[in-house]
Structure formats: structure tokens, C-alpha cells
Automatic annotation (TrEMBL):
The keyword Cytoplasm applies. Keywords: Chemotaxis, Cytoplasm, Hydrolase, Phosphoprotein. Contains a C-terminal catalytic domain, and an N-terminal region which modulates catalytic activity. GO terms for biological process: chemotaxis. Its main location: cytoplasm. Phosphorylated by CheA. Phosphorylation of the N-terminal regulatory domain activates the methylesterase activity. It comes from Paractinoplanes toevensis. The modification 4-aspartylphosphate is found at residue 57. Its EC number is 3.1.1.61, 3.5.1.44. Residues 162-348 form the CheB-type methylesterase domain. This is Protein-glutamate methylesterase/protein-glutamine glutaminase. One of its GO terms (molecular function) is protein-glutamine glutaminase activity. Residues 6-123 form the Response regulatory domain.
């Protein structure tokens, strides 16, 4: 990749192509090398000059975006950002796209596109930059389970974890690349283990479909969280897109609070919001995990968890799509251990 990020936009809407092009061209270091109405035209363009990042719609004539994505990954794996409308059907297909190798999904509305670009265009720019960074990385080195991982000295003496599974709690935060990472970690969890709460940065309406997809892959039960849900052993609750998630303690049981509020670190849901709540109510009974993602959301909250006595884990750089969030957590001194992605479920098993 050159000093500038070359972006190809593939969308059958002329308005979308126009406003996306204008937004990306106005961002330093990004060059729109083409904007075409469907994958057939895209293939013609790519045969002449290959882009660094593709911004891809799902529903298009002649060939749908998912089919095109799979062709790209077969011929020449390239960072792809899905830009899709907010419908249940496109949410399901977009999740298939993430599983097929797309780096991120940006939700676009069916109306008010120009206002959306003005208000949330930074998300598109960030996704393109994250995708370009992911494209420059070498293929993740998946370290075999059981291999040693670096250990950092604890910041304070650890209190023995309670024996009751109901009192133990696992909190996971992730962003770009996190859908694929969660599809590695969660299916490896054993049924009956501690309750798990997850913040994955994802657009509204996508999280329910994502939770349903994970539920079919896992031995634990996975679903989108609803306000007031208890945190139960053998269950994973995913924060709804567009709403914050925190954990409360009522008597001897944890429950989740799902609520609106301003974005924290530009995100709603925010990993920091979740981690800070877990630090307060669970302390040394908790395990915190921060995985692949751009930015620093979750780093300060993980530090609060560690200071409260929780054991904290960060995905290592070699297996991250984007190492931003784990790197920031390590830099703050918030991490007890860095682990390759394939080992994280084992760490949860031993320390959760």
C-alpha cells in the first residue's frame, strides 16, 4: 500500500456513491480510486488497478455483495468494509460477510443519507483506516493452545475468587475484527461456566442477528441482552447496538442494565461503561478480556477492573485484526496477561 489509502466504492445508488466519495475524499490520506454501481464493474476496475480497501454494499444488481466478497477473498484477500442498510435480512447477510472476511460493517439508513454522513461519517473514515491497517498486517500467527504467553506482575494482591459460579463474572470488550474473534472464543466455552457479558461495537439491529448466529455455534446460550436480564452461568449476553450495557448487583445476583445515553469514547455501547460497572460490583470475582479493535475504548475500564482485583487479559498483537484497544490497555498497565486468540478461552476456563 502507498502512502495514501486507495478506496473503491461499490454501491448501486448514485447518491450513496456521491456522498461516500465526498466524505472519504475530504479525509487526509484517503483517495477514492473508483465508485461503481455493481460488482461486475468493480471487477473490471480491479483488473486494471487493485484498491487498498473496498467499501461494499450488499444488495446490488447482477451480483450481490456477499458473493463478490467471497470472490475477492478467493482471488486476492483485500480489506472490505460493508456499508449496508438497516434491515433484518441485510443484517443476517452482513454477518455472513464478516464471517467471510469483511473487516467491519457500517449501517446506512434508507433515508437521510447526507445527514447520516455528516453526523456519522467519522465512523466510515475510521472503518476504512482500520481496514487499511488490517490489510498491512501479516497473517495472524495462531499460537497452539498451551504455549506460554507473557505475564505481567499484578498491580495488587489478588483475593481468592468465590467458589460460586453465580458470583463469578466474565466481561469481554471488542470492536473491529471482534465478530470473528468472538466466533473463536465463545464456542470454546464450556456449558455451566460463569456468566459472560459482551460489548461488541456493532450497529443497531445487527446485534440480535449476531447473537442468534453465535447461539447456533456455541455450547453456552447466547442472546442479545434486555434490560433487567440476570447474568446466569452458561449464558452470554451481548449488548444491543446503539445502547449501553452495565452490570448491577441485586442481593446475590448480577443483572444487566441496558440504557440510552451519550456515546463514551465515540461508542454506544461502550466497553468502558461495561468494564467500569463490573469493577464496582464484581471486583476480584471478575475476569476482563479486551480483544481486537481500533481506538482505546475499554482500556481505562479494564484498568479499573484490575485495580479492583479482577484478572485481566488482552488479545496479543499477532492475532488481532487491529491491535488498538489491547495496545492501549497494555500501555496503561491494565493487563495481567497477553494471550493469542486461540488461548483466550483456555485462560477464561482457568481464571473465570
Amino acid at each position: 500500500m502507498t502512502g495514501r489509502i486507495g478506496v473503491l466504492i461499490v454501491d448501486d445508488s448514485a447518491v450513496v456513491r456521491q456522498v461516500l466519495s465526498a466524505r472519504l475524499r475530504g479525509s487526509p490520506g484517503i483517495e477514492v480510486v473508483g465508485a461503481v454501481p455493481d460488482p461486475i464493474f468493480a471487477m473490471e476496475h480491479m483488473n486494471k488497478a487493485w484498491p487498498d480497501v473496498v467499501v461494499l454494499d450488499i444488495e446490488m444488481p447482477r451480483m450481490d455483495g456477499l458473493t463478490f466478497l467471497r470472490k475477492i477473498m478467493e482471488v486476492r484477500p483485500t480489506p472490505v468494509v460493508i456499508c449496508s442498510t438497516l434491515t433484518r435480512r441485510t443484517a443476517d447477510v452482513s454477518l455472513q460477510a464478516l464471517a467471510a472476511g469483511a473487516v467491519a460493517v457500517i449501517a446506512k439508513p434508507t433515508t437521510g443519507l447526507k445527514k447520516f454522513i455528516e453526523d456519522d461519517g467519522g465512523d466510515i473514515v475510521s472503518a476504512v483506516r482500520a481496514a487499511a491497517a488490517a490489510g498491512q498486517r501479516r497473517k495472524p500467527r495462531l499460537v497452539p493452545a498451551g504455549a506460554p504467553a507473557p505475564m505481567a506482575p499484578p498491580s495488587a494482591p489478588r483475593t481468592r475468587l468465590p467458589a460460586s459460579q453465580e458470583e463469578r463474572l466474565i466481561a469481554i470488550g471488542t470492536s473491529t475484527g471482534g465478530t470473528q474473534a468472538l466466533e473463536v472464543v465463545l464456542p470454546a466455552l464450556a456449558p455451566g461456566g460463569p456468566g459472560v457479558v459482551v460489548v461488541q461495537h456493532m450497529p443497531e439491529k445487527f446485534t440480535a442477528a449476531f447473537a442468534a448466529r453465535l447461539d447456533t455455534m456455541c455450547r453456552v446460550h447466547v442472546r442479545e441482552a434486555q434490560d433487567g436480564d440476570p447474568v446466569l452461568p452458561g449464558q452470554v449476553l451481548i449488548a444491543p447496538g446503539g445502547r449501553h450495557l452495565e452490570v448491577l448487583r441485586t442481593d446475590t445476583r448480577y443483572r444487566v442494565r441496558v440504557f440510552d445515553g451519550p456515546p463514551v469514547n465515540r461508542h454506544r455501547p461502550s466497553v468502558d461503561v461495561l468494564f467500569r460497572s463490573v469493577a464496582k460490583v464484581a471486583g476480584p470475582a471478575a475476569l476482563g478480556v479486551i480483544m481486537t479493535g481500533m481506538g482505546d475504548d475499554g482500556a481505562r475500564g479494564l484498568l479499573e477492573m484490575r485495580r479492583a482485583g479482577a484478572y485481566t487479559v488482552a488479545q496479543d498483537e499477532a492475532t488481532c485484526v487491529v491491535h488498538g484497544m489491547p495496545r492501549e490497555a497494555v500501555a496503561l498497565g491494565a493487563v495481567d496477561r497477553e494471550s493469542p486468540l486461540p488461548q483466550i478461552a483456555e485462560v477464561i476456563h482457568h481464571h473465570g
